[in-house]
Amino acid sequence: MKRFTWLFLFITCYANAQETIEVDLSNPHATIYTHFYFLQNDSYQPKKAAATILGLSESKAIEKVLKIKKVLDGKGLSIDFNKIPSNPNYKDSIGYTTFHKYILFPQRMPKIYVEKIDNKWYYSSETVASIDQIYKEVFPWYVDKLQNLIPASGHKKFLGMELWQLLGIVLLLVLVVVIFILTKKIAFFILRKIQHQITHRTSNLELDKVLKKLAHPISLLISLAFIDKIFPSLQFSLEVNTWVFLGLNIAETVFWIYVLLKLVKVVMRIYEEFTQRTDSRLDDQLVPILNNFLKGLVLVFGLFKVLRLFGVDTTTLVAGATIGGLAFALASQDTVKNLIGTIMIFLDKPFHIDDWIEAGEISGTVEQVGFRSTIVRAADTSIYQVPNSKLSEIVINNKGLRLFRRYNTNLGVRYDTPPILIEAFVKGIREIIIAHPETRSDSYNVEFTGFGDSALLIMVNVYFKSLVWGVEQSSKHRLHMAIIKLAKELGVEFAFPSTTVTIEQFPEKKSLSLRYNTDQETIDATVAKIVADFTGENPIENPTENV
Predict the structure, then answer these.
(1) Do 62 and 49 meet the contact criterion of CB atoms below 8 Å apart?
(2) Domain range spanning residue 241?
(3) 348 and 324 both lie in a single domain
(4) CA proximity to 24, closest of 34, 38, 37
(5) What is the DSSP code string of 450-513?
(6) Which residues contact 320 (CB under 8 A, 6 or more apart)?
(7) How far apart are CA 306 and CA 148, in angstroms?
(8) CA neighbours closer than 13 Å in the CB half-sphere of residue 469
């Protein structure tokens, strides 16, 4: 009797427990839980699950709810009921307008969602209308036919899988390998055609290697898409599909990152070839900066994609990063100013790489323009790292943009030099400048300009053609040597600071005046000889350091 009583109590409690779960359509969580609870093996009641469909007959509604569950199971989409809202007035905030609806998987299955209708939540009319098409996409027409053709022995299990599923995996892998090989060749062919259309140049060996590396992950992506399309047909359990599709999505994301990184490399390679054909050297410096920026952008978006696959709410993460970024920007205004200065430098282009500039107290050759600062190497090879914010605000004298290099000096000759020799000396220097291959023969000045403390001053103002510092120095050397030879042959002496005491009518003392040869023919012959000798000299090769 006691055993019977305990048995009666157990059956009563069990029946009450079974009756505690009833159809509840009061909120998104209740509706979705009702649908999936009554389609489980231990609580299978499809009629109650069909209550989540509005406006269809019972048999049609049952067909729809079964297809929704099979589609989600086939794609490995496991529902986390803890994340489904229980608010009866829940509004979807995705998009520009808000509605009383909840989308289970916004990214992968946006058409399957529940919505509020007359204070109750049902699967939407869009879900009901499109589920048949979605089901056909996940489970193509051949799936049901194959199921009918599988013999009883094919349902025997081996390693936790039915034999037909194991055979299907082997066949799928073979097809994937074939597709990978074919698509790799096709992708490389298409990429080469696109490259030819953009650059109008035949691809070189280095670029072909890059295109092959880009074709490799593209073919892998196509192979993964094929697996994603076919694998649900093998009808594994939800647990297996969840892990398989998670792995496929992670692999797809990684391959996409790889593809985009290689694409950045190809684009930067093409852009680099373009910059090499331009006169500007600043855009050459832009290549590594753009390359690093685009790679960073790809990696950041790839990271966000991977986080979403693991269920992380990236919207909240982006919002937090934005607020944190704003606070960080306020705390590091100098860095932001330098970044803006960098943009201004690349837009205005006040100088190019290898230009000699004078900016405030700094003068030197521009070697590198970075995100934050510009590196300038001085004449003594020391390095200045100038913040771009400061460089974009101060006055910059870009001597690298000069058309010519101006050289101006004064020659001092003795006061007792005869006028005819001064005139001949000036004339000879003019002819040397005209004969000089590195000076402008149409723009120069050689004139007797004044009287110094201890010398007669002859101004020499010339313009050298080359902007290279080393070539300029060798040109000066040739000019100076020719002037010295001319002075020696004419007998013109350069003065130096001195004091001459003249003693008049002193017995037995001779004058200190030098004897100058003022014969005109001798003078003309001397000038002609020096100019001819100068013209016949070989130019001296010098370093090409630009200063």
Answers:
(1) yes
(2) 157-330
(3) no
(4) 34
(5) EE-SSSEEEEEEEEES---HHHHHHHHHHHHHHHHHHHHHHT--B--S-------S-TT----P
(6) none
(7) 39
(8) 11
How far is CA 364 from each of CA 257, 359, 374, 387, rounded to the nearest angstrom?
41, 9, 11, 15
Same domain, 316 and 454: no
What span, in angstroms and rounded, lies between the C-alpha atoms of 434 and 439?
7
> Could you tell me the end-to-end alpha-carbon distance of the chain, in angstroms, rounded to an integer?
112
Decide if pLDDT at 46 tops 90: no
Put residue 505 in one of left, alpha, beta given phi > 0 → left and psi -120 to 50 → alpha. Answer: left
Shared domain for 305 and 163, answered yes or no, is: yes
CA nearest to 41, candidates 71, 69, 15, 2: 69
Residues 130, 41 within the same domain: yes
CA angle, 241 as apex, 236 and 243 as ends, to 5°?
A: 135
CA 289 – CA 283 distance, rounded (Å): 10
130 and 240 in a single domain? The answer is: no
How far, in Å, CA of 263 to CA of 257, rounded? 10
The total of other beta-carbon atoms located within 10 Å of residue 175's CB is 14
Helix axes 238-276, 58-74, angle to 10 degrees: 60
| Predicted confidence (pLDDT) per residue in 456-503, tens digit | 999 999 999 887 777 888 999 999 999 999 999 888 989 877 665 555
User: Across-strand partners of 451?
Assistant: 456
Give the pairing of strands 373-377 and 362-369. Answer: antiparallel
Q: What is the pTM of this model?
A: 0.50
Identity (one letter) of the amino acid at 22?
E
Write the single-letter amino acid at 328: F
